Fold Beta-fructofuranosidase insoluble isoenzyme CWINV4.
Amino acid sequence: MEVPKFLSIFMLIAYLWVISNNNGVEASHKIYPKFQSLAAVKVKQLHRTAFHFQPPKHWINDPNGPMYYKGIYHLFYQYNPKGAVWGNIVWAHSVSKDLINWEALEPALYPSKPFDINGCWSGSATVLPGNKPIILYTGIDYKERQVQNYAVPANPSDPYLRKWIKPNNNPVVFPGPDVNASAFRDPTTAWWSNDGHWRMLVGSRRKHRGIAYLYRSRDFMKWTKAKYPIHSLANTGMWECPDFYPVSISGKNGLDTSFAGGNEKFVLKVSLDLTRYDYYTTGTYNRDKDRYVPDKDSVDGWSGLRYDYGNFYASKTFFDSRKNRRILWGWANESDSTFDDMAKGWAGVQTIPREVWLDGSGKQLLQWPIEELETLRGKNVHISNQELKKGHHVEVKGVTAAQADVEVTFKLPSLDKAEKFDPSWKNLDAEHLCGKIGSKVQGGVGPFGLLTLASKNLEEFTPVFFRIFKDGHKHLVLMCSDASSSTLKTEGLYKPSFAGFVNVDLSDKKLSLRSLIDHSVVESFGAGGKTCITSRVYPTLAVFDDAHLYAFNNGTETVTVEKLNAWSMKKPAKMNS
Ligand code: DQQ
């Protein structure tokens, strides 16, 4: 796909900015040498989450090596044990029996050998035949090169896999002369093919071309780079944290990463460092040529599909053999400043694990919070057949609005009043469009949706809403999660009007929305998980018991809340304490 000129210039500026802010080392995270080992003096409770995954303090980023092993779920993640900004990165390790309650163990991997002395960066786990887990991760070696290492459990009979060994025959993959050694990281889960080889991908870039290099190995130790990358794309910059997996073309069941039935589709996700979003395509994996080809109508690059149109990055999936599903974890970074993070004593959460599967259209994925989350639902409030006339809102009373799960279905009597899609908006992406016409500008059909984390008199609120347009004979559905009015605080905050389009059939004139509200997180799923948006917000008034929840309509067409269920959410009994 051709990248518009303004985007190329923006990408170049962003790239130069990244380099200049990281002391010349290309590393994707901003480095604060003075702050990275300043331990939190105090952990501020305001804005900490209740049911999203979080350690008790300090910085977290990418989820790493999720897996299910001997009845236990494992989640590793990038963690700074010494401070609330990025740095001193180790693989923290937590375990769970239900993906809801988590117990923190000792870090699984920390810098200690020449091949990872400057950092243990992201990677993945693979369970080898005979139920043998193995981790592949990026080590920053003594020469600051990015190399790929492996680690194995010291005691595989321990289902908690408490201790990991990094054997001395590491690294197993060096960058090689034709590879950029400071842009070569984040190995995927490996898959086995019946030619007797394991395969895995490593993210990279050559100049401005994003690349997923393919490696093959018979024994998981000696890896050979394939002549061609599995896929690459010009002008997309560094591909971080690639993820590559098969999805079933019928039904919700997940497939093991090594599954090869011949009839499945594949998903390639890359985390684009320049925009910090996770993009995916659906396509075909040609096993003879070892190349991945996105489907014709699956847009590759900046205007392609994203897992989430908000604060969601460096995600990773795994196959959960316990329930035959594929589960997606993503990192929801903060939208406040580094100084706020140091004052809070913590930064970053993981989004709620989501089940992912291919939509019936075959053109996109669907995502939905894992069913286990429902065990945290407490008091329920129900509204049905409530009309919302132009400019009206109705309060959802009786639940803890700062810590809630809400599901709502809106019924639209007619689409006739849908606004015409202004052709000048074609050059705007969804986020800019939402920023321009937001929830406060009256429309025809919509904006309607939820006002989450709202103060009593609506001085603060994060609206999550739909707005429907007419574009020729088609309807376009815009979904927004708009942080621009989320707080009275003005200093140092990023308050984007996150948005994405929803490819939904409106013939039944219904639209559904689910929002998981958790103090500083609003994680939303439009139309059964077709479009997802996570916002990080920091209300000053709408906190704890002073938070409110409303359904609203600011379109001239009346919409009906056909049914709404909201639940107060409990805190898991154990969250890494
Ligand atoms: N975070 C890791 C890298 C990865 C980046 C370092 C993505 O391995 O590319 O903490 O957020």
